[in-house]
Amino acid sequence: MPSRRSILKGALSGLIAAPFVTPSIGFAKAPYAVVQAPGFYRLKIGSVEVTALSDGTVALPLAKLYTNTTEQHAHSALNEAFLPEIVPTSVNALLVNTGERLVLIDAGTGAYLGASLGKLVANIEASGYKTHDIDDVVLTHIHTDHSGGLVSNGKRTFSNATLRVNEREAKFWLSADNAKAATGVVKQHFAEAYQCVTPYVKAGKFETFADNAAPVPGLGSILYVGHTPGHSAITLESEGQKIVFWGDITHGDILQFDEPGVAIEFDIDQKAAVAARDTAFKQAVDGKYLVAGAHIAFPGIGHVRKDTTNYDWLPVNYA
Ligand SMILES: [Zn+2]
Fold first, then answer.
1. 261 falls within a domain
2. Which of 17, 187, 234, 299 could form a disulfide with 182 if both were Cys (CB 3.0 to 4.6 A apart)?
3. Residue 221 class from Cβ within 10 Å (0-12 exposed, 13-18 middle, 19+ buried)?
């Protein structure tokens, strides 16, 4: 191996021999690194450790999907906020370590929604945990982008966890009659809900919680019906600090804050979803607590503030 001195000498002699030769472009060219940073972000709520986890992003034509508005108006509002026509939309989950138990809130998409998603398990591991460490998985609702990751190749991804869902949410999605009556993409959602939840039911690892009840000791829930029939935010309070994991109270962080009356095609009851958002925004403003959105740009954690155009989203300061 050449010594440092001989390398230096060689380099210097090269310079002296050819002082006006420009450095070769090939010398500095590196291939693009492509991959994004691992998708986890950690914070403390009182004495509890919270880890925001990314499942990835999904490319959505948001302006086409919003309702109670026109595509043209939604497009220009997003455009003014420097968003492209097809918006990379985050899918986020939270991991809560209460000290007593490790609780995952929402489970990502698994293998259901393409290669730009399904990164939850990799990010759980990057954040220092293993899937078998998780004691409970609590869902905000059973849509596939929140429940798809419950299974991997038909088996439970979280082998030691009990799955916990609001009881009316479970009743709605696990009803064979509802599944039979559904049409289009909703029918597909019913089939996927069955595939993702049933392995936990069969293993005796499935529990429901009542409206606004605690899914596990140390966490609470707020029933915000509309997006789905039992859609529930999950709350955590410790030592005077509070975070509310909203689930799908908003899709994105621009239009539905300025115009909370705008709904989205994925809302099963759009009118109720608008009312739920109105309540959730008012409560977050009054309570001044942190909220986390499943579809707000990762880590999706911040505050809500009143402004001249209804509401404003303030992402948490990086720490
Ligand atoms: Zn969702």
1. yes
2. 187
3. buried
In-domain check, residue 204: no
The Cα–Cα gap between 260 and 240 comes to: 29
Tens digits of per-residue pLDDT, 183-225? Answer: 999 999 999 999 999 999 999 999 999 999 999 999 999 999 9
Q: How far is the CA of 146 from the centre of ligand 1 (A)?
A: 6
CB atoms within 10 A of CB 128: 11
Q: Which residues surround ligand 1, an ion (CB under 5 A)?
A: 145, 248
**Residue 96's CATH number:** 3.60.15.10
Q: Is residue 56 part of a domain?
A: yes
Distance 318 CA to ligand 1 centre (A): 25
User: Residue 234: enclosing H or E segment and its boundaries?
Assistant: strand 232-238
In one-letter notation, the amino acid at residue 66 is Y
Per-residue burial over 43-59, b if 16 or more Cβ lie within 10 Å, else e, is: bebeebebbbbbbbbbe
Q: Which domain holds residue 281?
A: 37-133+213-315
| Tally of domains within the chain | 1
Is there a domain that residue 6 lies in?
Answer: no
Give pTM, 2 decimals.
Answer: 0.90
Give residue 318's region: left, alpha or beta (phi > 0; psi -120 to 50).
beta
